[in-house]
Fold each of these.
Amino acid sequence: MDLSEYGVLLRFLIMPWLFLLFLIVIFRVGRSGVRFRDLVSSTQDGPAHPDRIATLTATVFVAISYIVIVMNEQAIVLGSGDNSRYLMPDIPAEMLLILGGTQGTYVGKKIFDRFREG
């Protein structure tokens, strides 16, 4: 089996698994096993926090974008024969900037809230 056949095989195994995982999460959210409100609010009846919404949105966006990049790019092979290794593609700098910005906003708000409280 050459490298392109492995890529096709992995694509047909990973995509249904990710889709099944997505369906399980949607099912659990629909049955209130996982509440979206808990992800974006610090208290049960409290308001949604913009920093949490931004962090959650950016994380989901970057994760999906990276999965698409991995599926569309050819695998990088180092070495040959039994000594060959496959490498994942690099995460683009723009994605790291998005993640860093939203995580920094979240941590900054947490620090600000701690100083304001006490």
Amino acid sequence: MATRRSKRLTGPLALGIQLRPVNAAAAAALLTGWQASLKLAASGFTVLGTLLSGTSPLSTRQLSLVNLLTDMFPAMAVAVTPSEEGTREGSEAADGAPAGTAALGSPLTRQIRQRGVITGLGATTAWLIGSLTPGSARRTSTMALCGVVGAQLTQTLAGREHSPLVLATTLGSAAVLVGIVQTPLLSHFFGCAPLGPVAWTGVGAAVAVAAMSPWALDTAERLLPDALARLRSDFRTAT
């Protein structure tokens, strides 16, 4: 009797993940904004932490770990997964420009600025909580590291939380981070220290701040131009 050979699906299809074509310009803009915003946040946070404490809050190995956990699988997953909020960007490019180029220019600058500020807020919040609670400097640095990665991963899910690929890579990166921090040998190699319940609660609070920041930033960006215009008008009237 002839036996039937069943075909097994491998790769993303085995997980029920449907890969849709994404405009190359939009994907390149997203990855460029991702890298630039991370460097902006890391630089600003390092300068602030150094001014306040006299030492850099993150070591070179910790910064390398941030890049490893946020720039590989999560970033690539986001690049090949269209945002639910921006699925019409490619077909609605203005002035007859090629689809996807609308993601460049001012939108890219705004993305870099917003992601950098949100990541910096997450890192600074975690670092301040670590500094104000009992513990070593290495514990505080570890909390800052978790705040940076947590803020980045939170933004990874924005508009793509229903994508199995993005969800899997984001949760996987978070699990790897926790495993590295809580494993003594790996933790020591990266200049970290295993965290207790209080420290993880502080990290959770920092990630929550990062998750709520986009709404606050959007409101500030809408109100700030009007406020500046009123100040200019009042100043001209007074003079």
Amino acid sequence: MKIILATNQHEMSVAIREKLNCKYTHVVVVDGDNVIEARPEAGVVKTPLKVFKRLYPTYEYREMPGDVNKSRALVGKPYDYKGLLGMGFKVYSIQDPKAYFCCEVVGIAADNVDDSMSHTLLPDDFIELSTAVCV
């Protein structure tokens, strides 16, 4: 399964990078000409790849074992604001098991991530869980 690690200069991305000392602030699953992602204003959605690249001009393609169908099944689910808050304070018990932020969408689809741990991952964690891909 192909994923993309990304960041931009949006104030939320800058805050995440500073608070968590990370390179990337977002991770998505590639699904053909779309990506499956969790967006605060929309929940889990499919976004055209071209639109995603405009929103996130700094990105890196990666490959990891997984099933894109598991991410597709989450489209339409709400955004996990509690999980994002928990991640920011490293209190991983703070999360909504029926809602998803970006790392959960990718982690649930990944074969090498325990579903129950996906809410503890940061986008940068997927660097170690995946391999670089030239596109």
Amino acid sequence: MAETLFGPPPGPVLDVSPTADDVAFFRANGFLAVERLTTDEEVDWLRRIFEHIFDPANAGNPGGPVDRSGLRIPEIAGKLTQSFFPEMQFPEILETNFRRNARRFAAALLDQDEAQLTSWGHMIRKAPGGPAASWHQDHAYWQPEFDYCALGVWLPMHDVSVEMGAMQFIPGSHRRGLLPHRQEDDPSQNVLMVDERAGVDLSTAVACPLKKGGCTFHHAETLHYTAPNTTDRPRLAFPMEFQLKPVRRAQPERMPWVDEHRAAIGGAGPTLYIHDGRITRL
């Protein structure tokens, strides 16, 4: 079975906690870079799972990667691919230093009870020549009918440079709330970017190159971006989202770009809560 292919996460155990300065920086700026959240040995183990999922021989299997390159530029097809919820295939991921330490950080940064936070993951492969992920807020991808309390953690599977596609952030942008977004590609693809009318000063952007074992955290309303991969190596990243269970709003939030995507795919579909390898319908 797939869940036994790679065995349990390797040692050693590493426990990392945020400092008061980390929490203060995150709340002021909306992001945080952490030099080491897990061990090199564990990153190597996660990379084996990553490369198994993205192996062309496994294309079409449940949990296999989907193309997120969009339709607008045919030449980049297949150069930005994404696999959702790898912890469903490999529940051992939930027992990693990465997940345990990230959850501890998320609780402190969000000022929430750690026991109430759940997670879901996705793996992203940006091949050489892969496109930028345009400036956006994660909140823009949420369902307008629900309120969320969540943040993202982003762990590369290797040293990552700006040229390869390290995370970049606009400090303090989380304090502006949800900004208007638009569909960057065909609306069926749901590739979002912040609308130019939002008046974002990109000159303030802070890039966060990382060494292996390091990560970044970002608030759900922090604008973030990754540049095209101009190197000769693929950029491999494993983000996770930590969240409380979403709460239904009395009135849906106004998010016309979501309406546009729903119209393009024939409707909203069921609203699902993905949490710790399980699926619950909201």
